[in-house]
Amino acid sequence: MHQGTRVAAVLAAAALTITMPAAQAAKDSTADGTGDVWSVTWDESTASEPEPVPSTKSVNVDLTKTVVTHGPKAIRVVAHYVNLKKTGDGFNFVVYTRDNKGRKTWSSVLVEPPRWRGFSILMTRDSYGCKRFRHTIDYAANTITTRAPRRCMGKPRWIKYKALAQSWTMIDESSGTWFVDDARSDQAVPKGWSGRIRRG
Prior knowledge:
Elements: H1 3-19, E1 26-31, E2 37-43, E3 53-55, E4 63-70, E5 74-81, E6 91-99, E7 104-112, E8 115-124, E9 134-138, E10 143-149, E11 158-172, E12 175-182, E13 197-198
Antiparallel strand pairs: 1-4, 2-3, 2-12, 4-5, 5-10, 6-7, 6-11, 7-8, 9-10, 11-12, 11-13
């Protein structure tokens, strides 16, 4: 190759590298007000359906923000809490998704003493679990993070999600109190799906 041609090719490649940035993941960051936890106390010896009432509990249940990142290879969810501690009878973080083809998934990070590192699972309509679904809990940063490979979820073009945090206090085997915080509202029941989060 002629020297001038070689230099031109190198410059063209460099220009292409500069003008074609790496694909960026699409992201949804939703803040959630603090102090919006609800509780339900149940007793299996009674037939009445308990109604949720506002609660002052915050440890292991009160969310402040949920960030969902839809990347080229994986979907990452980070739940930010007011306060995470290795205490209580148990807590979990649950995420539901639906996609452009109507497929739905359900994932959960479940924590019960003494397994403070937690256990996680991702369920789809077609399979029981995903071996490469992962989670981490950072008690110092008050976050729970999950990572789901896109192929486990059918490689969607876009997803919508809803999420909630739960914790519980057991009185005995047949009674106790549930605490819940919807990630996207101040209500006891999730208000519905987020907007579309497209693959980055």
